[in-house]
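queue> holo job accepted (zinc ion)
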Amino acid sequence: MGFLERAIRKGVSQGVGRAMGEALSKAIEPHANELANKAAQRIDEAAAKNEEYENQRRQNSAFNGAFANLERAANDYATQLGKNMKICPGCGETVTADKKFCPHCGAKLPEQTVAEGAVCPNCGKQNSIGTKFCQDCGTKLPAAVAEEQAQLMKDDAVMAEWDEKLAVYPKWTLGGKDYYIEEYDAGTFGFSARFATPVGAQAAVRQYREVLLQNGFRQAGQYPNIENLYKRINGTVYHVDTEHCFEGDSDCPQIYFNAAEPYGGFDYVKPEPKKQLELKDLKGLFKR
Ligand SMILES: [Zn+2]
Ligand SMILES: [Zn+2]
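queue> job finished
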């Protein structure tokens, strides 16, 4: 019983997880478990009647068929539940379909239910919940489109925050927008960006340095380097520090913005090295 129960639970939860995404899977987990337990019990009863069953089962595709049936049943059940459910674009919680605003975070809820979001606008197929593209014709499903729009709205909100807090710096629009601006010290700001891969993140930071250079930021002070760029605006020197941006997490570079004089001063000029005396200079001294 133990083995069967585990195997079936796994089969169900993997299928459900794939098909529905985490939020909905959480909501239907108790029901999926109930289904799994019932199936386990049935198989267990069958096994008790026939001791050979355990051996046959290994060669028999019927067992895989039982998993597929369970997965289908769980998907159908999820679609039924999804007809009375919306997913909040703000916090990702599942909410009953009659609500207009999320009771958890106050965000405006979408018009479509979870089930409607999985109906193909091209061919009308009701796809498994959580699918991004139609399983029959490949069209992008409404839920996936809505998810992208929600992300864009979040991006716009971040851009507005940038205008408010970091107006003197060129905007970061390269290599992804999934970041947040946070104050790390009074009057100065830290900026975090998240990327899918460390390589992508490093390339994006390099690109941002180029954007800064194009916008009049430059290396300055006694020890100039490309990781610290400065610009003087109305008497204040603004500084962008990309020197320590991968210290916390190579996937999530953090760029620091602040007003700071570079070491040795913004207009520091390296002194000319003392001219060495050459033989031709000496010649004149002895001329009479
Ligand atoms: Zn919410
Ligand atoms: Zn379709």
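queue> The first strand starts at residue 85 and ends at 87.
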